[in-house]
Amino acid sequence: MDQPRMTLRLPPGTEEVARLLDEVEAFAEEAEIPTALAMRLALVAEELAANVVMHGTGAGYFAFTATVTEAGVAILFEDDGPAFDPLAAPEAATGAGVDSREVGGLGLHLLRKMTRGAAWERAGGVNRLTCLLPRDH
Question: Which domains does the chain have, with CATH numbers?
Fold first, then answer.
């Protein structure tokens, strides 16, 4: 039996992040992904794409692939922006008050907390992040 899958490759831009979210929502509905898992999928997709849009100077594209598995949803995210390992970025200071905390980093914090088995590599000028959104989170 084929596993439901979506793949979308877009140029980096705010409007393209919105398009990605529309496609993720349609995919989740078609693949009958449970609501809580679909919401986490959309959040992770948005955070990854927004990072390329905001920080990936010179990127020509980002690509998002989601595959439904028995364990949850496997994600592959690629972009051709500058090398950036989101897993090696400093932890967000979530214990500090809003006024004393540095801006940014919460999206990566959520990515780390919501996913399992995340791995990053840079190959052929492309950042490649793989991870799993577990069903039982």
Answer: 5-134 (3.30.565.10)
